[in-house]
Amino acid sequence: MALYAELHRHLGGSVVPRVLWRYFQRNQPDLAQPFDHYEAFEDFYTRPRNTLDEYLELHTLVEKVQTDETLPYFIYRLMRGAYVFENLAYLELRYTPYLRTPDHLSQLERIDRMADIVEVVGKASQMIEYPIVTSQILCMHSRLPYEVNKAIVELAAQMKPYVCGIDIAGGDGHYRERLDEYIHLYSYARSLGLNTTGHLYETTAGCYPELLPYLMRIGHGIQIPLLHPELLPQLARQGQCLEVCPTTYLKTGTLESIQQLKVVFDRCFEAGVDIAICTDNAGLHNVRLPFEYENLLTHDIIGFEQLQACQEAAFRHAFAWKHEQRPESILNDILRPELNLVG
């Protein structure tokens, strides 16, 4: 039995269409009212968008309903699906806690409420019936002011039992004017001992080499092998890993064809740069991690040996996986203890 690690999944984009539709029907029918039937909603929710910014607007639809009261509902279904349908042994959930607090409160009040959100997500993710190692990545956001983003970094440092790292989200084309600010925040995060990743080099507008030294992993990063392959040796030396989410680039209009990813994988393997294959927004895409694997294989983007290397890289770069072995190896040790006998 293969068991997988998922390093890049957004809490907002993880809700599959059917679960979100049922929630709207039962609790907020006004949000379901514009659609005549479920199929119309699913088509709206999962269809490709023209740009990353247009695609990211869908997150606001879910963020509004993911409150401290409703998050356990959504997380239970997320974890159940991840365990039953995806064979996940490890899952990092990322989100911006500030955007799950009531928007009628003042900025300071919302900052104070963020810890409650992190605790709710942390407790709801720990399920005996669906044993998956989970942790959270807290996302700074390009739409939020410096004070809020700094508070997110500090909260991540304060809640390490639940949080394994920080990220920046909101579309990588929007960082330029505040780049010094983000560099300072990432430097601050590293000084606090935090693990770091960041949405970077996803689009052609999001190429910021100034941020690379502060990142342990790179969220997407596909424009590095596509447009800036001269940076790959640097990434290899620093042991940085790309979190590649194949379906995303077709949904956002970033790539025209999945075949374009062959260059990404080939150049990274040649340079010794690790790739973890991820889903990003499994609900928005209506896909699961094994489908991402199968799709890459079916389109001859990678072979089985490369797939296995990516799966191993995911565990190796997982911020909260504390074991030297993959879970299959641990199971083999249990099932065949005689293999561990010496002499």
Would you write up a description of this structure?
One of its GO terms (molecular function) is adenosine deaminase activity. It comes from Thermocoleostomius sinensis A174. Pfam families: A_deaminase. Belongs to the metallo-dependent hydrolases superfamily. Adenosine and AMP deaminases family. The protein has 343 residues and is an alpha/beta fold. It has helices spanning 17-27, 29-32, 38-46, 52-63, 71-86, 107-124, 146-158, 179-191, 223-227, 232-238, 246-251, 261-271, 282-285, 289-298, 304-316, 327-335; strands spanning 4-10, 88-95, 133-141, 163-169, 199-200, 217-220, 241-244, 274-277. A 4-stranded parallel β-sheet has the order 1-2-3-4. α6 packs parallel to α7. It is globular, with a radius of gyration of 20 Å.
Q: Quick gist of this model?
A:
This protein is of the alpha/beta class and 343 residues long. It has helices at 17-27, 29-32, 38-46, 52-63, 71-86, 107-124, 146-158, 179-191, 223-227, 232-238, 246-251, 261-271, 282-285, 289-298, 304-316, 327-335; strands at 4-10, 88-95, 133-141, 163-169, 199-200, 217-220, 241-244, 274-277. The strands form 2 sheets. A 4-stranded parallel sheet has the order 1-2-3-4. It has a 4-stranded parallel sheet with strand order 5-6-7-8.
C-alpha termini separation: 29 Å
Spatial order of the strands in the main sheet? 1-2-3-4
- Helix count, DSSP H or I runs of 4 or more residues: 16
Write down the domain tally: 1
Helix content: 40-55%
Largest sheet: 4 strands, parallel
CATH superfamily: Metal-dependent hydrolases
The topology string of helices and strands comes to EHHHHHEHEHEHEEHHEHHEHHHH
Shape: globular
Mean residue pLDDT: 92
Structural class call reads alpha/beta
- Rg is 20 Å
Sequence stretches where pLDDT stays below 50 over 5 or more residues: none
CATH architecture: Alpha-Beta Barrel
Strand content: 5-15%
Q: Looking at CATH, which topology would you report?
A: TIM Barrel
**In total, how many beta strands?**
8
What is the CATH first-level class name? Alpha Beta
